[in-house]
Design a protein that fits this description.
heterodimer; A: 367 residues; mainly alpha; 75% helix; 0% strand; B: 509 residues; alpha/beta; Rossmann fold; 2 domains; 6-stranded mixed sheet; 22 strands
């Protein structure tokens, strides 16, 4: 709740400082990799915004990041930490593909909602497992979601190599592990012809507004935030904490599942290897960078989409591994999470100043 | 450890928080062997001042002089190095560690901890001052009173010779409070200095040498204890004359609203915390539960609220059996509950005032229609509550955790009473509150009584119990020792019952 602009401005400044800090440390790694950080960052930041291709590609990446990020916002706000979006994306993607390829003759008005529903349900169930384990058996959700990622990945690979493999791959004998194309009439329409940007962007933006309304304007959203912010008080007020933990994980999984659907219906038009592409983890970063606010996650997703595209371009221009972007992302997480400390301890700045310049107490420690 | 503190002075301390001037040019002084009481209502700035001395906050202006030298205290560890120890109002203990581990937490310079030597030293300290505490017990198993003793041991163990105690007796029985006062006297005689934050005037009179009174962040008096009186201090602190709140009007209870029949329940330690409790609370009556904390009070309140399962027995609320009901059904059935932990159970600290005011009714009309929160209704409801219950807050959006203890309790009280409960359970509702807030709470409980609500008041403050209750039940080791009408209850008999001595009390009665 933004009660005063001063606070929001301060938050933005702290976030920007965190980003700059992460990039400065990242520059050290670039130097270690024997490349010119100025040139590398130059390409990375100008590339995504310099032409139509860069901009649209940034948005293409931003869509799954935003969807995953929205799920992260819901789960973190409800006090449960979801590291399982990678698996939930795959569950959503394969569920959507299976429905789409097995009912190719349904008209788009029926098939498309059905595909979205299937993807959200599969992702939601996959996330719900971790929620249920936490609520019923107090299994740490960080462990269970990470493990469920592995299980989802292996099941997914099995399905696209075996039962769901494209019959053409079998008959041609090429055997590329991917499913058949989904029917063309449910491909998400292109927003700009000749690019990959699709109508999934609009869907994700609408969903961000919906999540905001849900969390802050509805009684269920209130309950979920109450469970996250004060589980004991929530229980005291008669809220069924366990049930809302499961629901939060199911919704988070559903959002990630939708990211999978959008990748299938909007970008790849089938399920194939490497579909989740790390969005499940980058989405967490985007959500944290967006201060766990659905609307804040929108610009954060675009920013991280740009970082991903910029990294690809940087790789080509200055010949350094794109994995570098993973390093920078990791640094951003560390810096953003640390920056919370500055926001919550206004005294901290004063104390640093005192440490550096002020006179010190006599019995000062450290023998 | 630094040199011994012979003289402490805080000069011109000013501290500003967003929207509040918490300390305004505050001066205090303290010599070795002296007990200084800092008196003031909640929000007067006592705790802020002490947090500055303990290095938790930095003052915006002013300085701290130790033995005449200006010092800068940047953190609690620096304060401890200087010989300043603090026992907070809200304990700073790790529940999953033992007493011994908590005491030496952060002290060990070696990789391996020498728990045996530590336990021995703890035993020396506890023996010297008569603080009964088992070094091997886990902190989560301890009652609030016992946890406080751990905090005191912790400060002593660190060699503090200036001890700050923030509302120390608020959680103790009368006997324990007397012991603590004796302990504080011993300590000051042995050359330690003590700063006591309190609003209990009789204690301040009993133990302190000097009193500094704070009001609205400023020092309004600095007097020698011998030259003042309770009445004068009360007037200085509140800024007007005070009269204690007392039960008035005839005692004419109606039909029973809450009944417990032979109720058993397990505590966190796995043993029977409640071992056959039977009680009956009627309309328009206040039943007090006296007892040393840790004798089943917490479990009693939780069992009634449905937050803890009974292992045997039956609870009837408003004419229906509620033993197996969910917490939300029990709320619907008409139970109001002011929990012991008002900060983390009674409210959600990061939630705003308005969000906390609708904690129990957020899902019902008029606050929610078609799943949507009705902002305008909620806001007008909240601002009228803030006004009616005198909740001091900058805005309705302010997180409740930023309010003082008394104001947080007003939020809880406003919510629970406005819901028009049939029965109201209040667990230690005035613990840590100042005179003004306590008086207000008592008046509201009495108002509830005259509106026909059956109130169960759990408290350790015998004065409070005898002032507002109609009957008093004494809880000892999970059993009701006796239920006595307030006219027959005096401090001595209650004290004996609280110590588990039933027969003697009966003989005396």
């Amino acid at each position: 709740m933004s009660s005063n602009y001063n606070g929001v401005f301060k938050q933005i400044m702290v976030l920007i400082s965190a980003l700059v800090g992460a990039l400065l440390v990242g520059a050290l790694f670039l130097l270690l990799a024997k490349s010119d950080p100025v040139k590398a960052y130059g390409v990375m930041f100008s590339g995504p915004f310099s032409d139509k291709f860069g901009i649209t590609e940034t948005l293409v990446r931003a869509v799954p990041l935003l969807l995953v990020g929205l799920g992260i916002v819901i789960s973190f706000r409800s006090g449960i930490i979801n590291i399982g979006a990678e698996g939930q994306i795959l569950a959503g993607a394969i569920g959507a593909t299976a429905v789409a390829t097995s009912l190719p003759d349904l008209p788009a008005v029926m098939l498309l909602p059905l595909v979205f529903l299937a993807g959200a349900t599969c992702g939601g169930l996959w996330g719900g497992i971790a929620g249920w384990l936490k609520a019923r058996l107090s299994v740490n959700e960080i462990l269970s979601t990470v493990m469920l990622n592995q299980i989802a990945l292996q099941i997914y690979l099995f399905l696209i190599r075996g039962p769901l493999i494209d019959p053409k791959e079998v008959s041609y004998g090429t055997g590329v592990p991917q499913t058949a194309l989904i029917p063309e009439h449910i491909w998400l329409s292109k927003l700009i012809p000749g690019t990959r940007i699709h109508s999934g962007l609009i869907f994700a933006l609408l969903l961000a507004v919906l999540v905001y309304v849900f969390l802050w304007k509805t009684s269920s959203g209130y309950r979920m935030r109450a469970v996250g912010a004060g589980p004991e008080a929530a229980r005291y007020a008669g809220i069924r904490v366990e049930w809302y933990l499961v629901l939060a994980m199911a919704l988070a999984g559903g959002m990630a599942g939708l990211a999978g659907v959008v990748e299938v219906a909007g970008v790849h038009h089938r399920s194939l290897e490497g579909l989740s592409a790390g969005y499940g983890f980058s989405g967490i970063v985007a959500a944290l960078f967006g201060r766990l606010h659905p609307l804040g996650t929108i610009p954060a997703s675009v920013l991280f989409g740009a970082l991903l595209v910029g990294a690809d371009m940087m790789q080509r221009a200055v010949n350094i591994p794109a994995a570098m972007i993973m390093v920078i992302q990791g640094l951003v997480v560390l810096f953003v999470v640390s920056s919370d400390y500055f926001l919550q301890n206004p005294d901290f700045g004063a104390r640093i100043k005192a440490k550096l310049f002020g006179e010190k107490a006599d019995g000062e420690g450290g023998k | 450890m630094g040199e011994k503190i012979e003289h402490l002075e805080m000069r011109g301390i000013t501290k500003r928080f967003p929207g509040v001037l918490s300390n305004n040019k505050v001066n205090i002084q303290l010599k070795t062997g002296e007990v200084l009481a800092i008196l003031g209502e909640n929000g007067a700035g006592k705790t802020t001042l002490m947090n500055i001395l303990y290095g938790l906050y930095q003052p915006d202006a002013g300085k701290i002089l130790l033995n005449g030298k200006s010092v800068r205290i940047n953190s609690p560890s620096e304060a401890i190095e200087l010989g300043i120890g603090m026992v907070h109002q809200h304990f700073m203990l790790v529940p999953t560690l033992t007493v011994c581990e908590n005491v030496i937490l952060g002290l060990s310079k070696n990789f391996f901890m020498d728990l045996k030597t530590a336990a021995k030293r703890i035993k020396e300290i506890t023996d010297t001052y008569g603080l009964a505490i088992n070094p091997d017990a886990y902190v989560w198993q301890l009652s609030v009173g016992e946890q406080q003793r751990v905090e005191i041991v912790k400060a002593l163990y660190r060699g503090a010779n200036l001890l700050i105690l923030d509302e120390p007796t608020a959680v103790l029985t009368p006997q324990e409070a007397n012991d603590l006062i004796q302990l504080l006297k011993n300590m000051s005689e042995k050359g330690n200095s003590i700063i006591l934050i309190s609003h209990k005037l009789n204690e301040v009179m009993a133990v302190s040498d000097r009193v500094t009174v704070l009001r609205d962040g400023e020092v309004c008096a600095d007097v020698n204890t011998r030259e003042t009186s309770q009445e004068e201090l009360a007037r200085l602190m509140v800024g007007r004359d005070m009269a204690p709140c007392r039960r008035e009007g005839a005692f004419s209870p109606g039909k029973p609203v809450l009944e417990l029949q032979d109720v058993f329940a397990r505590g966190d330690k796995g043993t029977d915390a409640l071992a056959g409790v039977s009680l009956r609370i009627r309309e328009g009556e206040i039943l007090g539960i006296a007892g040393v904390s840790g004798n089943g009070q917490k479990e009693l309140a939780e069992v009634i609220a449905g937050l803890r399962k009974t292992s045997r027995g039956k609870i009837v609320l408003n004419g229906k059996e509620s033993t197996q009901m969910s917490p939300s059904r029990i709320i619907e059935q008409g139970l109001g509950y002011i929990p012991e932990d008002r900060i983390h159970v009674g409210t959600i600290p990061s939630f705003s005032i308005w969000e906390n005011l609708i904690l129990k009714d957020h899902h019902q009309p008029p606050f929610t229609k078609h799943f949507l929160l009705q902002n305008r209704t909620i806001m007008s409801h909240s601002s009228s509550q803030v006004e009616k219950y005198g909740i001091k807050t900058p805005t309705l959006e302010t997180p409740t955790g930023r309010l003082s203890g008394g104001n947080i309790q007003r939020v809880v009280l406003a919510r629970e009473i406005t819901r028009k409960p049939v029965a109201l359970v209040a667990a230690y509702p005035t613990r840590g509150l100042d005179i003004g807030a306590t008086e207000y709470l008592h008046s509201k409980l009495l108002e509830a009584r005259s509106n026909g609500i059956g109130v169960l008041l759990i408290s350790e403050d015998l004065e409070e119990l005898t002032n507002v209750c109609d009957r008093i039940a004494v809880l000892y080791e999970g059993r009701i020792m006796k239920v006595i009408p307030v006219e027959e209850a005096d401090e001595r008999i209650l004290g004996l019952l609280m110590a588990g001595i039933a027969e003697e009390a009966q003989v005396q009665a």
